[in-house]
Every structure is written in structure tokens, then in C-alpha cells.
Amino acid sequence: MPHKPCDTGEDVLAVLERTYLLDRHAATAGSWKALDILNEYLDIEVHSFASGSECFTWRVPPGWAVEHAEIRLGDRVLLRHADHPLTVQPYSDSFTGRVGRDDLLKHLVWSEARPDAYAYRSQLAYQTDLRRDWQMSLPWALVRDLPEGDYDVDLRTRFFDGAMPVGEALLEGDSPHSILIVAHICHPGIADDGLSGAVTGIRLMRWLATLPRRRYTYRLLLPVETIGSVAWLWKRRDLLPHLAAGLVLESLGNAAPFAWKRSYPGDTRIDRVARHVARRFGEIEERDFRDKVGNDELVFGDPDFAVPMVGLQRWPYPEYHTSDDAPAALTAARLDEGFAFARGIVEVLEADAVPERRFVGPLHLSRHDLYVDARQDFALYSRIWRIMQMMDGETTLFDIAEATGLDFAALQAYLDRWREKGLIRDRALDPRAVFPRGAPMWLVCGRD
After folding, report:
1. How many CB atoms are closer than 10 A to CB 109?
2. pTM passes above 0.90
3. How far apart are the first and last CA of the chain?
4. What is the per-residue pLDDT for 293?
């Protein structure tokens, strides 16, 4: 059966509408359902990690589900779980009883900045080994006017032996050296934070599948944030020597300015490429690895894994971690821009090569119809001699573009004319030389 379309920003929005209200967290049915839906757009293998599985120092949490949730003040119903997934915070315990206003407030979360929205907190989901508690959310506009009184809380949740899913899609290339595209699928009832990156990752993989050949192998990873990436690395440790670099895609459709984050080393090939591509988009902020919010790049950048990951994101934005982070707050144009940035990075990685001369001495440009009129393109005109001088049989096309300040795609298009005339030929790059990898030290030392 052919896949459903996911090739435009509008397509991405349509997929988000289908998936964002699912109750998506670690070992919840909503995460499995989300991957079932995403599989309609791209073939996705789902890895299953049973509750209680030990993955390095992490333990997969139990399955969790909300069976019923309601808060009443007399005959007035203040909250129902059917109203929105964020009414009950992930991994809340059951509680049934009558509490006063002050006690109720201790178990409520809200956002004063978004007074009509439900808020999201994830602390309980990452503390299942330490404590059990319950948290629910009401909009601040309601919380601030709650009167004194007795509130009836009926919260019934279920913990059980379940499993956490991690989605993985694969496109093989000429080399097993892999570029990872990572975006998390969790955060119930939220569209942009994580999920927009996941669907954009699917769009990117679909575009990659149209290429006649690929230099690198590409892996799209769709985990629950943090613990899903840890579990995947634990299970797929055999791939570590081949994990060259990667992109983390997150929050791509909101109205905040675009930014990209450096990898943990900060000076790798993929950092330089991201910085180069960013110039095409005008004012895009470059951030340090740990600046602003961090996600799964923190896992892959750990010294035991040392996979350089750059991040693409729009943050901070006012709807963050609230129910206002919905498809209606996103635009197709901003999603298209995020896709174009990610695709631009991949295009450079795939097309970079060493241009080798097939002529001697400085080329007579006008004789070969390669002269550039300074009045039409002064930047290229003023750099042609330097380009020729850098064709030393060792310097790559990207290195030349970076050194001359020319856009990679524009330089590539100009040198295509040289190739057509047989004046240069390209020597392909070995991905292992671009992103050298060795056996992880923790495996060499037997630390497992």
C-alpha cells in the first residue's frame, strides 16, 4: 500500500492534527499509536523495551494509562480528562478523595503566561523509581478564581508491565557511516515540541529516498525524549562506530526566530556545514550546545557515545509546554523553512567532493566561456583565482566555499560548467575520513 503524502509544510500540519492529542509518553498506548500513524507515511521499525529493562543506568518505566479523571466543586465539573491529555500529568498516581482548596493547589500545575491553557510537567514520568504522586492541570484563568471549599477529586490511573517504543527508519547508502535524524515523539497534547520535528524528519527521509544514490546511510530515530535515545543506544551499540553525526529537529513551526545549536565538540564538520547553510536564511542565531533547552543531543554528545549532533529549533516561544502548542499555532511556511535548513545540511554532506584539475596553470576563462562579469556577480568574479589556487587535489568543494565566503550550492553550480567541459573531475570523499569514528572507550575498557 503506498504511503500517504508528507512532502510539504501543509502535509506536516495534517499529520500533526492526527497525532498531537494522543497521550504520548514513555510506555503509553499513545506513543505506540503515534508510531502506527507515522508508519503510514514512512516505513518505521519499532523497537520495544519492556518495562523494567535496564539500559545502562536507566530503567524503562512501567506502562501507564488514565482510566478516569475528574475534579468537582459541588455540582460543578472543573476538569475531565476527555477535555485534553494535559489535564492529567504523565505518570500520576491514582487519588480519590475530598480536599480543600490549598491541598488541591499543591497538586495542580498551570501557566500564568497562558491563562487559558493547560500546562505540561514531566517530572513524575522521570521519577517513577523514587516516588508516586499525582498532578493535574487547570488553566490559570480558572485556578486564580477557585473559591475555598471542598473539591472532589476522582483520578484513576493504572500502572502495569508495558513496553516503551522507539521508532527507527533506515535508508542505506554507499557507506554504513550514518547520519542520524532525531526527534522525540512524546509530550501529550503538544504539536510543535518534538512532534513537528518527527514529522519533518519523515519528510526529510522521503526526500532522501528520491536520490539516485546516497553517500551516507540515514537513520531516522523517533524516541521518547532522553530515555528512548539511551535505550536505543544500549540496544544498537554495534552501530556506534558508524554513527557519524546527526541533526536533532524540534519545535520548527512556531513564530519564534529560527536558531541552530552547535554539537558538543562545536567544531566538527557538521557544525561548519550548519553554520554555512544558516547564512542562506538571514538572521539565524547560533547557540552553544547547552544554551537554551537541550534534548537528545545531550545523550548522543555524552563522551561515551561522542556523536556530534547539531540542533535546529525555534525557542523560546510563548506556547511552549502548554496546550496552546497546537497545530493552529504553527504555519506551513515555517515548517518548510525548517525542512529546507535540514535538507541544505544533507545536500552539502552528500555533494561535497575534491575537485581535481584536468588542466595546467591558470585557466583561460573567457576561452572556455567561464569568465564572470564583475558587474553581474562581483563576489564570484573576485574569488575565481583563489578558487583555482585551492584546487590542489586535497581541498574539498565545501572547504573552498567556506574559505571564499561563497555559497556551496552557487559554487557547485558554477563548477558544474567546468565539469561539463572536462576541466575538473571530482574525487569522492570517504565518509570515514570526514567523520572518523573508533570503538567507544567504554566498550574498549569493558565498561558495560
Report:
1. 18
2. yes
3. 42
4. 83
